[in-house]
């Protein structure tokens, strides 16, 4: 991308279109309470405080557009949110919807999971800054545990080299044109099971740079995750970090 990064070039897609069935509640996890406000609004607050991100598109489940504006955006003054759009059955369908809504006005795109509400504005901006020396950037943390490859019968096939294994997070940052091309190719090839967007970009032959993420940048999937996020949030607020 070069050294000429301008803040007006950076848009973000926050993906919150999952049903959150593993939470077991009546409401999708993005609307559950975290420290007195919805999980999704916590995530969007980090982008609101980001120096480099200028616009945000939120992708939510079908039928939730009005509810999302009412419950998670307007009450918290999240002025960077430009649009709320409906997602699809799969994560990559939802990101593609977000890309179409964001448009090429923003050549640099940050993609982030709405269920990672403890992401810091500094990490968001660091991932964008890393695009000065790369064409695609993802955040990740090194594995702390020994990892085993296990077969379908539950037997160990091999032990992986922990030093080379990183646990991928979001935010992830791409050129708009690259990410759109990657999604279009996936549609053409019938590839529908990408766990994240970097997989799609890698399939175009683009090198992806990894930068250090944060162990606090957890993804809320289960009730226990929500409890942990609440505890982390309380500590960070007590330290004045939020």
Structural category is: alpha/beta
| E-strand count | 11
CATH superfamily: Spore Coat Polysaccharide Biosynthesis Protein SpsA, Chain A
Helix content: 25-40%
> In which order are the strands of the major sheet placed?
5-4-1-6-10-7-11
In this structure, how is the largest beta sheet organized?
7 strands, mixed
What number of domains?
1
Taken from the alpha-carbon principal axes, the silhouette is: globular
CATH class: Alpha Beta
Q: End-to-end distance, in Å?
A: 31 Å
Determine the number of helices (DSSP H or I, runs of at least 4 residues): 7
Write down the Rg.
18 Å
CATH fold-level label: Spore Coat Polysaccharide Biosynthesis Protein SpsA, Chain A
Q: Low-confidence parts, pLDDT < 50 over ≥5 residues?
A: none
Can you write the helix and strand succession as a string?
Answer: EEEHEHEHEHEEEEHHEH
Query: Can you give the mean pLDDT?
Result: 92
- Beta-strand percentage? 15-25%
Highlighted features:
242 residues; alpha/beta
Brief account:
With 242 residues, this protein is α/β, with parallel strands linked by helices. 32% of the residues lie in helices and 23% in strands.
